[in-house]
């Protein structure tokens, strides 16, 4: 679902206020730099700005989202709104030169043009220098929006030509509240909100049956740590690894396990309201009583080390989980 100004104002109030004020006063900058972590809404905000500039039936500054221009911007097919993305890991000089050639032509349907550069920090040095010339001598009616998660990797000269707007990650508690409003169970919303800053990613994750089953399996894994070694290893091979076949899935599973230990630590410190597995408080309190704090901290350290080793080339996930489980058991 396409973003509207009300949604942006809730997620990024400072950014929304700056852009709305510029639109209302007719003082849109010729170049913006949207910087912030992945999932904070930079691309959606750039498309919203484009729709507000090109919409055929706006309500004030709010685009209708239904007209030909709004639909084409959303699908990436508007001739006067161009999106540049890395080609093979970087943005090349040729891509910027092509953009410049396109923008020297008369706008196809209006007196405005806009271009969006995704992952602007991935520009080659020659591409960044070409873009710099473009930013220094903007064509009338042209708006540039650069998107980046790596603000510090951009040339200072490029940054200085842009109005910088910082997108802040949504606090997990606020993100969880938004998910609950979408009828996501609180138990899944709390975990999903801690696993990603992105509302869309958190919503998709919390609505995925795989995620709910992953949560159940990880709780079972902690329970199995109290069983004989053979039972524990059988559980890992028979149940756990088949549910987490890919490394990115197992990484998420390790995060879920880490959050169990985090909850134990909070309960031991008398902060049970901070628990993420809130529907499991009885079990968590029982586990917290039988597990000394030093052991909880050692367990967290072991999980973090396993996450680091998971990314190593040729690392066997089966061996990794066997070693971790036996380490946690001891």
UniProtKB/TrEMBL annotation:
The keyword Nucleotidyltransferase applies. Keywords: Nucleotidyltransferase, Transferase. Its EC number is 2.7.7.7. This is DNA polymerase III subunit delta. GO terms for molecular function: DNA-directed DNA polymerase activity. The keyword Plastid does not apply. PANTHER family: DNA POLYMERASE III SUBUNIT DELTA, REPLICATION FACTOR C / DNA POLYMERASE III GAMMA-TAU SUBUNIT. InterPro entries: DNA_pol_HolB, DNA_Rep/Repair_Clamp_Loader, P-loop_NTPase. NCBIfam families: holB (TIGR00678), PRK08058.1 (NF005972). It comes from Geobacillus thermodenitrificans.
